[in-house]
Amino acid sequence: MSDLGFIHRFVPATLPGRPPLLLLHGTGGDENDLIQLAQALAPGSALLSPRGKVLEHGMPRFFRRLAEGVFDQVDLKARTKELADFIAAARKAYDLSAPVAVGFSNGANIAASLLLSAPDALSGAVLLRAMLPFEPMPLPDLSGTPVLLLSGANDQMIPAAAAKRLAEVLQASHAALAYKAVPAGHNLTQHDLNIAAEWLGKLGPEPLA
Ligand code: MLT
User: Fold this and answer.
1) pTM here?
2) What are the pLDDT digits (tens) for 46-67?
3) What spacing in Å lies between the alpha carbon of 17 and ligand 1's midpoint?
4) What are the residue boundaries of the structural domains of the chain, listed by start?
5) CB-based burial of residue 94 (10 Å sphere; 0-12 exposed, 13-18 middle, 19+ buried)?
6) Beta strands in 99-156 (DSSP E)
7) Class assignment of domain 3-201?
Protein backbone atom coordinates (compact mmCIF):
# COMPACT_ATOMS: atom_id res chain seq x y z
CA MET A 1 0.00 0.00 0.00
CA SER A 2 1.30 3.48 -0.73
CA ASP A 3 -1.11 5.67 1.22
CA LEU A 4 -0.61 7.32 4.63
CA GLY A 5 2.66 8.79 3.41
CA PHE A 6 4.74 5.60 3.26
CA ILE A 7 4.64 2.55 1.01
CA HIS A 8 3.80 -0.10 3.59
CA ARG A 9 2.26 -3.45 4.39
CA PHE A 10 -0.34 -3.99 7.07
CA VAL A 11 -1.15 -7.46 8.39
CA PRO A 12 -4.16 -7.50 10.74
CA ALA A 13 -3.93 -9.22 14.13
CA THR A 14 -5.06 -12.83 14.32
CA LEU A 15 -5.00 -13.02 18.12
CA PRO A 16 -6.60 -10.54 20.52
CA GLY A 17 -4.63 -8.67 23.17
CA ARG A 18 -1.21 -8.67 21.48
CA PRO A 19 0.50 -5.32 20.87
CA PRO A 20 0.84 -4.31 17.22
CA LEU A 21 4.40 -4.33 15.88
CA LEU A 22 6.00 -1.61 13.75
CA LEU A 23 8.59 -3.32 11.56
CA LEU A 24 11.59 -1.22 10.50
CA HIS A 25 13.97 -2.85 8.04
CA GLY A 26 17.72 -2.35 7.62
CA THR A 27 19.51 -0.59 4.75
CA GLY A 28 18.54 -2.15 1.43
CA GLY A 29 15.45 -3.84 2.84
CA ASP A 30 11.80 -3.11 2.25
CA GLU A 31 8.35 -3.54 3.77
CA ASN A 32 8.41 -7.30 3.13
CA ASP A 33 11.69 -8.04 4.90
CA LEU A 34 10.66 -8.50 8.50
CA ILE A 35 7.13 -9.88 8.08
CA GLN A 36 8.02 -13.57 8.43
CA LEU A 37 10.48 -12.87 11.20
CA ALA A 38 7.84 -10.92 13.13
CA GLN A 39 5.26 -13.67 12.63
CA ALA A 40 7.74 -16.11 14.14
CA LEU A 41 8.67 -13.76 16.99
CA ALA A 42 5.16 -12.66 17.93
CA PRO A 43 2.46 -14.86 16.38
CA GLY A 44 -0.92 -13.16 16.11
CA SER A 45 0.24 -9.53 16.40
CA ALA A 46 -0.88 -6.92 13.88
CA LEU A 47 2.08 -5.88 11.72
CA LEU A 48 2.70 -2.43 10.27
CA SER A 49 5.69 -2.39 7.97
CA PRO A 50 6.72 0.81 6.13
CA ARG A 51 9.46 1.11 3.52
CA GLY A 52 12.17 3.68 4.24
CA LYS A 53 11.94 6.63 1.83
CA VAL A 54 15.60 7.56 1.55
CA LEU A 55 17.54 5.86 -1.23
CA GLU A 56 21.28 5.23 -0.85
CA HIS A 57 22.56 3.92 -4.18
CA GLY A 58 19.04 2.60 -4.74
CA MET A 59 18.82 0.98 -1.28
CA PRO A 60 15.92 2.10 0.92
CA ARG A 61 16.77 3.52 4.34
CA PHE A 62 14.86 5.50 6.96
CA PHE A 63 17.22 8.52 7.00
CA ARG A 64 20.33 9.82 5.26
CA ARG A 65 23.84 9.15 6.46
CA LEU A 66 27.02 10.97 5.55
CA ALA A 67 29.18 7.88 6.14
CA GLU A 68 28.76 4.58 7.95
CA GLY A 69 27.63 5.48 11.46
CA VAL A 70 27.69 9.25 10.70
CA PHE A 71 24.14 10.49 10.39
CA ASP A 72 22.68 13.53 8.65
CA GLN A 73 21.08 14.96 11.78
CA VAL A 74 18.79 17.40 9.95
CA ASP A 75 17.41 14.59 7.80
CA LEU A 76 17.17 12.24 10.80
CA LYS A 77 15.06 14.77 12.69
CA ALA A 78 12.70 15.35 9.76
CA ARG A 79 12.41 11.62 8.93
CA THR A 80 11.71 10.73 12.55
CA LYS A 81 8.87 13.26 12.62
CA GLU A 82 7.56 11.95 9.30
CA LEU A 83 7.57 8.38 10.64
CA ALA A 84 5.82 9.46 13.84
CA ASP A 85 3.13 11.12 11.67
CA PHE A 86 2.76 7.89 9.65
CA ILE A 87 2.33 5.87 12.86
CA ALA A 88 -0.38 8.27 14.04
CA ALA A 89 -2.18 8.07 10.67
CA ALA A 90 -1.89 4.27 10.56
CA ARG A 91 -3.19 3.93 14.11
CA LYS A 92 -6.32 5.82 13.04
CA ALA A 93 -6.70 4.00 9.71
CA TYR A 94 -6.22 0.51 11.17
CA ASP A 95 -7.55 1.17 14.69
CA LEU A 96 -4.31 0.26 16.46
CA SER A 97 -2.86 1.01 19.87
CA ALA A 98 0.67 2.42 20.02
CA PRO A 99 2.94 -0.19 18.43
CA VAL A 100 6.08 -1.87 19.68
CA ALA A 101 8.85 -1.22 17.15
CA VAL A 102 10.96 -4.12 15.93
CA GLY A 103 13.89 -2.59 14.08
CA PHE A 104 17.06 -3.97 12.57
CA SER A 105 20.18 -1.86 11.96
CA ASN A 106 19.08 1.37 10.23
CA GLY A 107 15.49 0.50 11.25
CA ALA A 108 16.63 0.03 14.86
CA ASN A 109 18.39 3.40 14.72
CA ILE A 110 15.26 5.25 13.63
CA ALA A 111 13.27 3.34 16.26
CA ALA A 112 15.79 4.64 18.83
CA SER A 113 15.35 8.14 17.38
CA LEU A 114 11.56 7.80 17.79
CA LEU A 115 11.98 6.74 21.43
CA LEU A 116 14.23 9.72 22.11
CA SER A 117 12.33 12.45 20.25
CA ALA A 118 8.73 11.22 19.88
CA PRO A 119 8.37 8.88 22.88
CA ASP A 120 4.57 8.69 22.64
CA ALA A 121 4.75 7.15 19.15
CA LEU A 122 5.76 3.73 20.49
CA SER A 123 4.72 1.56 23.42
CA GLY A 124 8.04 -0.28 23.37
CA ALA A 125 10.85 -1.37 21.09
CA VAL A 126 13.08 -4.26 20.11
CA LEU A 127 16.32 -2.68 18.87
CA LEU A 128 18.43 -5.16 16.95
CA ARG A 129 21.95 -3.78 16.30
CA ALA A 130 21.21 -0.15 17.19
CA MET A 131 23.45 2.73 18.24
CA LEU A 132 22.76 6.12 19.81
CA PRO A 133 21.54 8.19 16.83
CA PHE A 134 21.99 11.54 18.61
CA GLU A 135 22.51 12.87 22.13
CA PRO A 136 19.01 13.90 23.30
CA MET A 137 18.73 17.16 25.18
CA PRO A 138 16.74 17.05 27.41
CA LEU A 139 16.30 13.33 28.02
CA PRO A 140 12.83 11.99 27.19
CA ASP A 141 10.67 10.41 29.89
CA LEU A 142 10.48 6.74 28.96
CA SER A 143 9.28 5.61 32.38
CA GLY A 144 7.97 2.09 32.09
CA THR A 145 8.53 1.81 28.31
CA PRO A 146 9.88 -1.69 27.66
CA VAL A 147 12.95 -1.75 25.41
CA LEU A 148 15.06 -4.73 24.37
CA LEU A 149 18.47 -3.81 22.93
CA LEU A 150 20.51 -6.61 21.40
CA SER A 151 23.95 -5.70 20.12
CA GLY A 152 26.49 -7.97 18.45
CA ALA A 153 29.67 -8.36 20.50
CA ASN A 154 31.65 -8.55 17.23
CA ASP A 155 29.59 -6.10 15.16
CA GLN A 156 31.93 -4.35 12.69
CA MET A 157 29.28 -1.78 11.70
CA ILE A 158 27.91 -0.65 15.07
CA PRO A 159 30.77 0.12 17.47
CA ALA A 160 30.18 -1.51 20.88
CA ALA A 161 30.68 1.89 22.56
CA ALA A 162 27.86 3.48 20.49
CA ALA A 163 25.45 0.66 21.42
CA LYS A 164 26.48 0.95 25.05
CA ARG A 165 25.92 4.72 24.95
CA LEU A 166 22.37 4.08 23.67
CA ALA A 167 21.81 1.69 26.59
CA GLU A 168 23.06 4.35 29.03
CA VAL A 169 20.76 7.01 27.57
CA LEU A 170 17.73 4.68 27.61
CA GLN A 171 18.47 3.78 31.20
CA ALA A 172 18.88 7.44 32.19
CA SER A 173 15.50 8.08 30.51
CA HIS A 174 13.96 5.43 32.81
CA ALA A 175 13.06 2.94 30.08
CA ALA A 176 12.50 -0.62 31.30
CA LEU A 177 15.62 -1.73 29.45
CA ALA A 178 16.90 -5.23 28.77
CA TYR A 179 20.34 -4.98 27.13
CA LYS A 180 22.46 -7.87 25.94
CA ALA A 181 25.55 -8.12 23.75
CA VAL A 182 25.13 -11.46 22.00
CA PRO A 183 28.09 -13.43 20.60
CA ALA A 184 27.48 -12.36 16.99
CA GLY A 185 28.39 -9.81 14.34
CA HIS A 186 25.99 -7.38 12.61
CA ASN A 187 23.77 -10.15 11.25
CA LEU A 188 21.08 -11.64 13.43
CA THR A 189 21.48 -15.14 14.85
CA GLN A 190 19.05 -17.68 16.25
CA HIS A 191 20.20 -16.53 19.68
CA ASP A 192 18.87 -13.02 18.97
CA LEU A 193 15.57 -14.42 17.77
CA ASN A 194 15.13 -16.63 20.83
CA ILE A 195 15.74 -13.70 23.19
CA ALA A 196 13.44 -11.37 21.20
CA ALA A 197 10.62 -13.95 21.02
CA GLU A 198 10.79 -14.58 24.75
CA TRP A 199 10.85 -10.84 25.52
CA LEU A 200 7.90 -10.10 23.19
CA GLY A 201 5.97 -13.05 24.62
CA LYS A 202 6.17 -11.49 28.07
CA LEU A 203 4.66 -8.15 27.00
CA GLY A 204 1.24 -7.73 28.49
CA PRO A 205 -1.99 -7.10 26.63
CA GLU A 206 -1.90 -4.14 24.33
CA PRO A 207 -1.78 -0.83 26.18
CA LEU A 208 -4.85 1.37 25.98
CA ALA A 209 -2.88 4.38 24.71
C1 MLT B 1 22.80 3.20 9.90
O2 MLT B 1 23.17 3.79 8.91
O3 MLT B 1 21.70 3.36 10.42
C4 MLT B 1 23.76 2.22 10.47
O5 MLT B 1 25.04 2.47 10.00
C6 MLT B 1 23.36 0.83 10.20
C7 MLT B 1 23.02 0.57 8.75
O8 MLT B 1 23.89 0.58 7.90
O9 MLT B 1 21.87 0.35 8.44
Assistant:
1) 0.96
2) 999 999 999 999 999 999 999 9
3) 33
4) 3-201
5) middle
6) 100-104, 124-128, 146-152
7) alpha beta
